[in-house]
Amino acid sequence: MAEARIRRGGTARLTRTTGARGRSTSGRSRPVKRRSWIDRLIAMLPVSEETLQRMASWAIVGIVLAGLAGVAMLLGLPAMAGQKASELAANAGFEVEKVEVRGVERMDELPIYNIALGQVSRSMLALDLPKVRDDMLKLGWVKDARISRRLPDTLVVDIVERDPVAVWQHDGQLQLIDVQGVVLQSVSAGAMPDLPLVVGPNANLQTAGLNKLMENAPALKPMLAGATWVGNRRWDLRFQSGETLSLPEGDKPSATALVNFARMDGVNRLLGRGIVKFDMRDPDRFILRLPERPAADPSGEKPATSAAAPAKGEEG
């Protein structure tokens, strides 16, 4: 009789296998969860989900801090803190005690010191440098200014002065002006600088045009004693030898007339010969006005007080 061996645990168990991947043992399909557009957008970002969570956390913290800062601003806490810091700095020696002024040659330095030391707060931390500079620029002489701190207690002021080019006489006053017509300071008749005198309303604003006009006749420029802006349209030039030259209106006509006069003076020596006035307002005529003589010539003829010559003045 054949011996039969029974293996322990050898009883076969029937199991049902799935016929396809993704199916349950019962044969039914598992439900697939669809991804929202937000999930798809996040998946496209080149950062991990963990990094995004950290970024969101910091954004929330930033919003909270911004809200707190806004509340502090409304309550005035930053201003109070800044004022307290300024007071502490001043008590520690960081306060404006000295002013060092550079670049000043002609102007009075006292207004600069008054501005620098006259601020509401002299603490080096609270000092408003742009305001100090703006106040400096209101001074007539100051063309530009640079303000800087030098700790612990010195304010350094670098000044660029305007250059005086003429004295403007208007409404009985004499004022020093630069090439742009900016009034620098008042001057007295007894302390007149060696500069041309410009006369007339708005003559100061025409100083740049006068300088440009005189560049057409460099030989006459050192002889110019002054000029009168007539009718807000043209110049009468006065020379140191006493003569007056009336020029026409307009930049080009006046420049042409001045060049012709300089040429005639170079040939015939018109200046310094006792002639009172040269009139070149008419481009076709050159009129000379001679001084009036108190008595007639022995011949009994009345002397001529004016004469006319061709405009180009090639003859003497």
What is the beta-strand fraction? 15-25%
* SSE ordering: HHHEHHEEEEEEHEEEHEEE
CATH architecture grouping of the largest domain: 3-Layer(aba) Sandwich
Q: What is the number of E strands?
A: 13
Concise account of the structure shown:
By secondary structure, this protein is α/β, with parallel strands linked by helices. The protein has helices at residues 37-44, 49-75, 77-91, 110-117, 129-137, 207-214, 251-268; strands at residues 98-102, 142-150, 154-161, 164-170, 173-178, 183-186, 197-199, 224-230, 234-239, 244-246, 277-279, 285-289, 306-310.
Account of the protein in words:
With 316 residues, the protein is of the alpha/beta class. It folds into three domains: 46-75; 93-161, Ubiquitin-like (UB roll) (Roll), CATH 3.10.20; 164-310, Cell division protein FtsQ/DivIB (Rossmann fold, 3-Layer(aba) Sandwich), CATH 3.40.50. It has helices at residues 37-44, 49-75, 77-91, 110-117, 129-137, 207-214, 251-268; strands spanning 98-102, 142-150, 154-161, 164-170, 173-178, 183-186, 197-199, 224-230, 234-239, 244-246, 277-279, 285-289, 306-310. The strands form two sheets. A ten-stranded mixed β-sheet has the order 6-5-4-7-8-9-10-11-12-13, with no helix packed on it. It is elongated. The protein starts with 36 loop residues before the first helix and ends in a 6-residue tail after the last strand. The relative contact order is 0.05.
